[in-house]
Amino acid sequence: MRGFWRAFRRNRLALIGGVVVVVLVVLAVLAPGISPWDPNRPDVRKILDAPSRAHPLGTDQLGRDVLSRMLYGARVSLAVGFVSVGIATMIGLVLGSLAGYHGGTMDATVMRLVDLMLVFPRLFLLLAVLAFLRPSIWTIMTVIGLTGWMSVARLVRAEFLSLKEREFVIWSQSIGASAYRTIWRHILPNAIGPVLVAMTLGIPAAILTESGLSFLGLGVQPPHATWGNILNEGKDAIEIGWWLSAYPGLAILVTVLSYNLLGEGIRDALDPRLRQSVGRIVSRAR
Amino acid sequence: MSRGDLLRLSGLLLLIALAGCGGEADSAVDAPTAQGSSKPAYGDTYIEALQGNISGLIPNVLSDGPSFEVAQLIYNGLVKYDKDLNLVGELAESWQYSRDCLDLTFKLRRNVRWHDNRPFTAADVVFTYETMINPKTPTAYGGDFKAVESVEAVDPYTVHVHYKHPNAKALQSWSIWMLPKHLLESYAREGKLREAPQNRTNPVGTGAYLFKEWRPGEKVVLVANPDYFEGRPYVSRVVYRIIPSSATTFLELKAKGVDGAKLTALQFKRQTEYPAFRKAYTKYQYAANIYVYFGMNLRDPRFADRRVRQAFAHAINKRELIEGVRLGLAREATGPYKPGTWQYNPNVHQYPYDPARARDLLAAAGWNEKNADGILLKDGQPFKFDLLSAQGSDEGRKVAEIIQAALKDIGVQVEIRVIEWAALLKEYIKKRNFETVILAWGITPDPDQFDIWHSSKTSPDELNRIGYANPEVDDLLEKGRGTCVEADRKKYYDRLQEVLADDQPIVFLYFRDGLPVVSSRFRGIVPTPIGIQYNFNEWFVPLNLHRYTAG
Amino acid sequence: MLGYALRRLILAIPLLIGITFVSFLVIHLAPGEPVENQAGESSTQSDAKLRERLREIYGLDKPLHVQYWNWVTRLARLDFGRSFSPDARPVLQKIGERLPITLLLNIVELMIIVTLAIPIGVLSATRQYSTFDKITTVFVFVGFATPDFWLALMLMILFGVQLGWLPISGLRSPTWEYLAFWRQQWDFVAHLALPILVATFGGLAGFSRYMRQSMLEVVRQDYIQSARAKGLPERVVIGKHALRNALLPIVTVLGLSLPGLIGGSVIVESIFAIPGMGQLMVQAVFERDYPVIMGNLVIVATLTLVANLIADITYSLVDPRIRVAARRGRR
Predict the structure, then answer these.
(1) CB-based burial of residue B73 (10 Å sphere; 0-12 exposed, 13-18 middle, 19+ buried)?
(2) A100, B250, B423 from B238: Cα distances, Å
(3) Of A13, A40, A236, which is closest to B266 when you measure between CB atoms?
(4) A19 lies within 8 A of chain B by CB
(5) How far, in Å, CA of B77 to CA of B176, rounded?
(6) CB-CB under 8 Å, C37 with B64
(7) In this predicted structure, what is the pLDDT of residue B26?
(8) Any CB–CB contact under 8 A between A104 and chain B?
(9) What mean pLDDT do residues C46-57 have?
(10) Nearest CA to CA, how far is A156 from chain C (Å)?
(11) Peptide bond preceding B135: is omega within 30 degrees of 0, i.e. cis?
């Protein structure tokens, strides 16, 4: 553990990334306390006001303060990142392990399930879910998670397939360790590396997906703000309301970069030997 | 280090953003002189931006706006509306309406030819009618002809229509596009009009423009019909470019890639006021035939109480709503008819913005306690409901958000749900599974709105979605459509508006303005309550201002 | 090996049927039914009979398994049916007129991305944490995180409105028919320039990071050290030994992106007014145009299964351990 911290601390970029993520989370949590205006109250006298003292980030098309909406929106965007990727990773880990460890029919079934999910139009699933259930940030996160586990599953499965044949696993099995123990203690820690990479690319992708959903008019219900839907509203006012696109865009950029730097830093700081196995995993990853 | 790069990069991006918004340098293509000669000249091309793909070329079996817009130039009806909203003859030279409103006889123009040069005759009129009432034809407009008893071609240029009972919409219904019998008969009989080649590659009408080309998703090209019965149109080519994004359309306007388009409220009000734009384009504004409303499911006991509905009407500041949603570019609606039309009645119960009055009305209806969050209670139940809005409609969403805030002020909690249109229609509206909804109605120049307000029209596929039932209204609707004497109808519809205003079955919000813009080189445009395109065949560009000389 | 491939191919047919069946069910059970008017408003005209009539025409009044059976048997004859939208055109025709442009855009974009990503990845890896590495990291992530439509509109404003160098939207100028042949080609290319630029800028991140990652791993392998110890020049070490191995995962990822080539980005397409597969599919979903949705699904499913098969075979050819494990697992 201490080795990890030492290695991590040495990576300045990763530290910056980590700090930024923490700052964003803190801002998001404190949003109700620090927002200068009610983020949801329209005020038609202030439609599309440029940034000013009173409204440092300007106002939107219904006269609402963009800074306040960005702060509240941070909660949603960050949560979307964490939760959807968390769900996707968990599903992927479980299914990938099962497939990789047991092989045979279990493997085939899981892989075909992967195929089905890849082929099925995700938009459709979203529409169906959103129409039936009360669309809330939770349903959206769940759907994004439910439709994004495939690459993690593949990565984990590949790792299993390769590691299964390595010495320490066979040794562990030969002394009678249960399958569960083998998986948990020996295989999974080695699989963490590529999974982490997938997560660091997945979190920003989830945030951008939420933004894309706003483009199609799906997503978090009005009047709640997310970076994605502020951005989307800004598209119709791109010339005279540049702040509606610039600030959420900037926020998303900063978040994406930070998560990535942080994730890569974590991965690099983990057992350096992992880099070798990660290399082989990556080359097997499908 | 990387943060520095990051900052620099974002600075660069912001710079690009700012560069874009600093008013427009006049792109040098042409600078039309203020006058130019006003002598009509033939030639030039008009390029219009369409917001959506057309779905076909036989409008009778379609229902989307873009298709109708294109069809307007290819087809004609027997009658059409002129700029004062009177019905005048198009393919019909004259007509006779019997006193009892049961017999309508049209005298058709002679020398009208279809685009394939065959003559237009009464047989085509009869054929079109038979197609519209044929149950196999997938059309939404067959209902207009239900009252017809028979249609007969007395001679090649005379058509006699006999009605079962007087029908006020009779004359208007004959503005339906006329279809060529000699080409479509076999398809119509099988109910396969949509599969006919005329729906896809070579429509044949009698209109001012001939069809040239349709590249799906890209463009539709029409060329002037030199034999058009009202005279050859001046503008020799029309190109409809399909551009889904309004932001892109606006940029195309600036870059002179399109000549005409519909502006959004924001573009109209705030992005087109600079000199170069005003010189290159002319902006028009007219009240469009669509009103937006706040609908309540009247089967819900809370909304069945008229005082609640009236309270909502008082709680919503319509001026502010219009300002917020349309930047002021709309007219307040007090009923289902547009101000400025003959049927409009201004003397109805008004609902000025008055939250205090709203609260009183709600209290009188039993909502006189509040819970800890300030929400009104009745029998212990908080006043809380869902407000549905269609996905894809930014306007609807904004209306919902403003109403949500307005109702919150009087102690009513509203949750907005944006639902994609197909699901909204089938699962919520048709199944009457909604509490409140933001929708819009498109109205016709004819005041008959039987299908929306009559108590018999409440089955799932019919339009009285809120479940309104008022016997006086039923009676007025029946009488209004049952006579063809305008003065009588005016009486009925005036009273209808009074009753509707008192009842507030829905809260009428506003009629939005149409905001078309056309390159200033086009002359002959006259803005009217039905828009600007009705006399397109009379538009022209002075010779020295022609931009496109090809084709 | 051959047996494996053959077995997979034979399994593919029932698999395809299974995938399409499940998808068919889910799609038809989802709320909503094929609708016509997308405007969000309703005219004061309507006809309940029209709804009934359309349901009949579309066969929606029959039970689901019957509908599926009809669809699948027609599919076997390569008849994808007719679209439910009012133009009632054959599905294959609708897909066929949009597929080429989407394919063209995707393939060109992919080629550009791969051409750029490989050198970027290699150089970043060999100079890990250097200035070059940091700049390119930020650059590709800016590309990744920048919203497509924003970049598109900015570029349109810059190149289209202010500079006037490139056309803003669409595939061809309105006067294209009247241009000389070479001008026509140039016009077409000019129209594609901005969309490709936008797509490439966003897509560079994934591949270049992958390449960098892969290179980093390979470079730390023992055999690289031994190659260096043997005295081989760095250029050969990297360019020949390391690169060849590092490229392997890239090739695989390329193969697996095969099914994605027929999909378009609806955002880019609607901003640039390009009639591609993205818009077609999104519109089909919103209109519940089941035949078009299913048609596209079948094509994607087939491509996916083919791509998977190729990938699996390539793998087991490359890594004997996988082959052994697979065989053992199947016991």
Answers:
(1) buried
(2) 62, 19, 36
(3) A236
(4) no
(5) 5
(6) yes
(7) 33
(8) no
(9) 69
(10) 14
(11) no
